[in-house]
Amino acid sequence: MSILPPGPLQSQCQDQSNNAISSWVYQWSSPPPWCGSRAIRISRPKGACKRRQAVISQAASVEALPALADGRGSTAIQVLRGARDRANDMQAEAKAMARAANASVYTPELVSNKYRSRPIKVLRRTMEILIGVGSFALKLVLDQSNGQLDQNKRIRAVDLRKICTKLGPTFVKIGQGLSTRPDLCPPEYLEELSQLQDALPTFPDAEAFSCIEKELGLPLDSIFSSISPSPIAAASLGQVYKAQLKYSGQVVAVKVQRPGIEEAIGLDFYLLRGLGFLINKYVDVISSDVVALIDEFARRVYQELNYVQEGQNARRFKKLYADKQDVLVPDIFWDYTSGKVLTMEWVDGVKLNEQAAIERQGLKVLDLVNTGIQCSLRQLLEYGYFHADPHPGNLLATPEGKLAFLDFGMMSETPEEARFAIIGHVVHMVNRDYEAMARDYYALDFLSPDVDVSPIVPALQNFFDGALNSTVSELNFKTIVDGLGAVLYQYPFNVPAYYALILRSLTVLEGLALYADPNFKVLAASYPYFAKRLLTDPNPYLRDALIELLFKDGRFRWNRLENLLVQGRKDRDFSAKDALQPVLKLLLAPDGEQLRILVIKEAVRVTEAVILGTVIDTYNSIPNPMRTLIVSGNTAGPLMMSDTEQENMIKLRDQVFRIWRLLRSSENFDPALLQPIVQVLQEPDARSFGGRVIGGITQRFAARLLQQVLRAPPTVPASTL
Question: Among residues 198, 335, 389, 407, which one is catalytic?
């Protein structure tokens, strides 16, 4: 990172909206001794870079503060350095954006216009694909007819890897997706296709080094004190070198884009769009808009070609998710980044599918997979910004036990409404509320509002009643996707393009988990996160989902609450305070009367269970002779309750006590968290609520007492003389 020199500093900051550039000069108000009277010249855009201007201005004014002799000077210097570093970082990022100003953006019209006038090139590429894919399919047919399908698995896996490599980046990405699906491909195929992640053919080093110098406008030896003579890894879109920065000595990874890559993928997407039109027109079994899905995927791949965009993606991802101690995201060096060159912090680690190597470091693969799942749930359902290409080459286990995310070229976002709808969908699936599940497809944008969902309900019921033999957590993600897929094909669903990337992301993670443990259940590992969100998130949609989960037929399901707390506590971010406050606010809301009636009824039942359960325990602890005297020989006991009723009451009391112990044993439990509850209960509406609870308890015990008074006296057997 550069520092302010003793001479003028010039930079340009490009406004992406109107590309307007203007200049502004800041003069030191009180120049420090080392600076003299020089000015700092900062290029400032008219719009988007005002924030950068403010930070730079702040840096200049803080720099001008004289050192204080009373010890406060060190604080001022720290503030100065932080502001100066931020300003320099923004300037460097702006310069990188300017270097990538001519990066291509995917549009269907651009691709169509470019290749429609090149029929010979299109025909040649079509024949290459047909020959490559067709020859592989023919070999499989011959192996099956000769009874050698299993015997030749290894040979055919090598053939498939070579075909994907030969056909180029588009097919390499298809092979990368298959390499993480042990449920779709035999182990021999997984092993071979995994080489597509970072062991692809390289292009000449001279071309790579020339690209670096051309893109950054500097000689190679003025940037790096050393750089590996050959690539450390080669991926579908570029290859990576390990280098050491000359100005700081920091070790970095330098990714350089493959020459001619845009031409290659553009032609493939042109052909795929043509195939998509044919599928939309003639294949009725697929109801989704295939062309729209291809266009969405193409836009993501073209974004990968702009390495400045990838760097910005990495920064955003780091800010959102690297706050956890077990997640690592490398930083970006903007001074040495452009549209075709990306310089980032070097990360030592082992690919997540190299189980033996990970265990040799004393780490557990499933712990790292769990970290990946929890981080992915936050990506998909909390912030909505997610890594859409998490194959093993992009996920590393560091020696410290952290999970490092790499390669941020392909990212996507989940709409806010869909995030809550997905969580609600899981709740409805647990409750087997198939009507609510069908209605969720409106919020997920799978169905237009004018589509009647009533015919879909029986199809959902037929699938899930057969699949949910025990619990939802026993299902794997593929089972649900396949089952829902069968339903989607039968009805007018239109799967949004973002959802296809979500499916890809989740299936890749499940594939990594199954690679480590064939019995691993992703949904079971996801339960703690879902439980925590349901218990703590104040969003109205999730509050309603929690009520649906806990109440049924006017009765509170304490076993569900206990299970949610048990699962939610497994999430490190679970807070007992957060689990109580949203429920109280919902309970005392103006529109919460119906819920208050249910809660009052349940509060009376629980209070009765606690008091009478204690009476029953006390009675059972008394010696038998004394019991007979107390109840005057009545076998029904002192409370006129059957054995079944007594057992149910004690069971309810014990369950409530267990739930309270779960809350108290939370790591962040503090008795002070009850203080806001007391404050809330002092409000007028809350006092009315409390009075209704006390009135209900009083009535219940009065009825019990009356029953005791009016009970028939015990029959005294006649004495025999």
Answer: 389
8-state DSSP, 382: I
Measured in whole angstroms, the distance separating CA 343 from the mean position of its chain's CA atoms is 26
* Cα(208)–Cα(204) distance, integer angstroms: 7
Query: What is the DSSP secondary-structure string of 29-47?
Result: SS--TTTTT-EEEEEEESS
Q: Which residues contact 117 (CB under 8 A, 6 or more apart)?
A: none
CA–CA gap between residue 174 and residue 268 (Å, rounded): 12
Residue 192 has pLDDT above 90, yes or no: no
Dihedral angle computed from the Cα positions of residues 714, 716, 717 and 720, in that order, rounded to the nearest 10 degrees = 170
Sign of the CA dihedral with 643 first, then 645, 648, and 651 last: negative
* β-sheet bridge partners, residue 395: 405
d(CA 441, CA 179): 31
Three-state secondary-structure class, residue 250:
coil
Question: Taking Cα atoms as reference points, which of 25, 26, 22 lies closest to residue 12?
Answer: 22
Nearest-angstrom CA–CA distance, 307 and 302: 10
Token code pair at residue 257: 């884009």
Q: What is the pLDDT of residue 645?
A: 74
353 vs 514: CA distance, rounded Å: 10
Both tokens of 275, joined, read 């195939």
Q: Which tokens hold the place of 267?
A: 């032609």
Name residues whose C-beta falls within 8 Å of residue 187's C-beta, 6 or more positions apart in sequence.
none
Considering 244-258, 285-299, 344-358, 409-423, the range whose residues carry the highest mean pLDDT is: 244-258
Query: Does residue 467 surpass a pLDDT of 70?
Result: no
Pair of tokens at residue 195: 């080489």
- What b/e string do you get for 368-399 counting C-beta neighbours within 10 Å, with b at 16 or more? bbbbbbbbbbbbbbbbbbbbbbbbbbbbbbbe
The 3-state DSSP composition of the chain as helix, strand, coil percent (nearest 5) reads 60, 10, 30
Stated pTM of the model: 0.69
295 belongs to the catalytic site:
no
pLDDT of res. 314: 95
Give the distance from CA 666 to its chain's centroid: 25
Structure tokens at 11: 């930079």
**Model pLDDT for residues 570-609, shown as the tens digit of each residue:** 777 777 667 666 666 666 666 666 666 776 777 777 777 7
Residue entry with tokens 């035999």: 186
In this predicted structure, the answer to whether residue 38 has a pLDDT above a threshold of 50 is no
Q: How far apart are the C-alpha atoms of 9 and 3, rounded to whole Å? A: 10
* Beta-sheet pairing, 341-345 with 251-257: antiparallel
Give CA–CA dist 345/251, Å, rounded. 7
Q: Are 267 and 273 in contact (CB under 8 A)?
A: no
Task: For the chain, state the CA radius of gyration.
Answer: 33
640 burial via Cβ count (<10 Å: 0-12, 13-18, 19+): middle
Which residue do the tokens 């265990």 mark?
359
